[in-house]
């Protein structure tokens, strides 16, 4: 009887490899360890603030070191170098995102208590010198001025981009492209000065202030953004689609309307949303042309109108005896502005999803 001896042979496919998910476990452990260190330091200093940005940054750096050492011990130097480079790339992403994380964290912490007050969205600052009041007048002004600026800018910008892509080939197209590039670099306060000078010349009133003037100033900033983004998206539409439409005898204008624009609608909507987000937080041009008021003004074409950026500026710059109330309203307005931009981006994504051409099955 022959005894068979079975020796345990190592599996070459699994030997010398870290288990799946090790990197995520090491990253979470690094963040937790650095978070505990910061928490102990805060206890020693008597501070109640938790440094989220520092925890994420130093925790990620600790992860780079830990994953390299762990991989070197288990997998060897070659695999460890590969993991180190991958971790460093991830670290650069974390470093790039940290300012946004810090901004959102700061604004939410300081602005959430004020935005949760029902009076913030139902009252204005009329006859309010201390606690209470709200940003109703600023929210209405922001929505009206931005909507009017969008109505002015989108048709002009979209038609300009259609001309540049579909028709423009000569000196006029090159001149328009050059002027759009120049407009892209114009400081926002210059746009406000342009709108102010325009309406002073038209009305003859050196003290002219209105929300529509602010819309014109914002449209000067929006138009080049819409032109550039729409132009690049229209260039991505395959020429085969245009040629197929022409082969069926469809005129060019109808091809653009029925083929080119529906194909590019997702990118165009995204570009318009970026343009709106670009101007919705502008303060300098509105300071010159719209002024500011503490009352609700629904008339876009008459009298001064308040916007959220202007409201933030006035609340921070003109603090009354109870400075905390003014700062709370400023932070709450900043959070409201961010939420409006987030809603606009969500609407743009929904429009792009439901109105873009569906791929065939």
Describe the overall structure.
The protein is 72% helix and 0% strand. It has 361 residues and is mainly α. Helix 1 (22-45) packs across helix 2, helix 2 packs antiparallel against helix 3 and helix 11 (308-317) runs antiparallel to helix 12 (323-355). Residues 1-15 have low confidence and may be disordered.
Strand-helix topology:
Layout: H1 22-45, H2 52-74, H3 77-115, H4 136-167, H5 171-184, H6 188-203, H7 211-235, H8 239-247, H9 252-279, H10 284-289, H11 308-317, H12 323-355
Any key phrases for this structure?
single chain; 361 residues; mainly alpha; 12 helices; 0% strand; flat; disordered N terminus
Low-confidence stretches: 1-15
Q: What share of the residues lie within helices?
A: over 70%
Strands, total number = 0
- As a whole number of angstroms, the C-alpha radius of gyration is 28 Å
Biggest sheet statistics: none
The total of helices stands at: 12
Average pLDDT figure: 85
How far apart the termini lie comes to 65 Å
Secondary structure class reads mainly alpha
- How do the helices and strands follow one another from N- to C-terminus? HHHHHHHHHHHH
Coarse shape: flat
* Content of β-strand: under 5%
In short, what is this structure?
Helix content is 72%, strand content 0%. The protein has helices spanning 22-45, 52-74, 77-115, 136-167, 171-184, 188-203, 211-235, 239-247, 252-279, 284-289, 308-317, 323-355. It starts with 21 loop residues before the first helix and ends in a 6-residue tail after the last helix.
């Amino acid at each position: 009887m022959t005894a068979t001896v079975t020796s345990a042979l190592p599996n070459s496919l699994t030997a010398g490899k870290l288990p799946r998910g090790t990197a995520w476990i090491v990253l979470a452990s690094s963040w937790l360890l650095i978070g505990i260190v910061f928490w102990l330091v805060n206890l020693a200093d008597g501070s109640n603030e938790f440094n989220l940005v520092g925890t994420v940054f130093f925790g990620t750096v600790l992860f780079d070191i830990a994953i390299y050492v762990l991989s070197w011990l288990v997998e060897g130097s070659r695999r460890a170098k590969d993991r180190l480079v991958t971790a460093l790339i991830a670290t650069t992403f974390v470093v790039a995102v940290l300012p946004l994380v810090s901004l959102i964290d700061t604004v939410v912490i300081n602005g959430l208590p004020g935005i949760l007050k029902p009076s913030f969205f139902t009252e204005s600052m009329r006859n309010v010198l201390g606690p209470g009041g709200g940003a109703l007048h600023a929210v209405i002004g922001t929505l009206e001025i931005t909507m009017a600026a969008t109505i002015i800018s989108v048709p002009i910008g979209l038609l300009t981009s259609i001309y540049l892509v579909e028709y423009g080939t000569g000196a006029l197209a090159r001149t328009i492209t050059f002027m759009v590039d120049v407009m892209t670099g114009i400081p926002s306060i210059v746009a406000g000065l342009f709108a102010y000078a325009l309406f002073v010349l038209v009305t003859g009133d050196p003290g002219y202030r209105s929300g529509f003037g602010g819309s014109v100033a914002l449209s000067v900033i929006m138009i080049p953004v819409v032109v550039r983004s729409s132009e690049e998206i229209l260039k991505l539409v395959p020429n085969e689609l245009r040629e197929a439409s022409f082969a069926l005898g469809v005129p060019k204008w109808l091809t653009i309307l029925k083929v080119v624009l529906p194909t590019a609608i997702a990118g165009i909507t995204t570009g318009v949303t970026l343009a709106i987000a670009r101007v919705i937080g502008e303060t300098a041009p509105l300071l010159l042309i719209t002024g500011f008021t503490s009352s609700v003004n629904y008339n876009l074409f008459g009298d001064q109108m308040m916007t959220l950026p202007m409201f933030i500026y006035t609340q921070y710059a003109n603090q009354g005896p109870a400075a905390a109330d003014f700062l709370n309203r400023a932070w709450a307005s900043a959070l409201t502005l961010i939420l409006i931009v987030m809603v606009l981006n969500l609407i743009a994504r929904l429009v792009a999803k439901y109105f873009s051409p569906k791929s065939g099955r």
